[in-house]
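Re: weekly structure request thread

Next one in the queue (171 aa):
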Amino acid sequence: MKDVNALTNECINELESIGLKDELETITSVTVNSRAKGRFGRVLTRRNRSTGKATHSMTISSEILQDCVDDKAVKNTIMHELLHCTRDGNNHTGGWKRLANIVNRKLGYNITRANKYSDFGLQAPAPRENYKYEIVCSNCGEVIGKRKRMSNVTSKYVCGKCKGKLIMRKI
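Done, posted below.
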């Protein structure tokens, strides 16, 4: 398994090399999450109400820290999470997006909003098959299984692939 602290320090040094280390707020911990299967990284932010200063704790999934995964792909995820540890890094818009574009351009990363298992050369875990409902795109036919009924799916959401209308049906 790869050393997440060493890779994080390498990423911080790379941010320093392009003058972005001052953008980072305090990172209190970097840990490995062995249970996370649906996300590869996460940052929890705690902001002190009186001072306004924030501290961040970062977790990286053990799935991508396997020795068979390329270091650059792992560092891409760590860099993505580090950008959430900045003053404007709460969402994937505004300040986070601006910094991601700078890092991509100057350091050759490919930081995006989300990654898939295939981005790391890994096989995705088999999906659970105990779905009661499925959401189907009326335009492209994309199917998403759901265990619970979502009452607002057809009015609030659109297909992530083609922006088509969604239809929920019981299986």
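DSSP finds four helices and six strands in the chain. Helices lie at 4-17, 71-84, 94-107, 153-156.
Next request, please.
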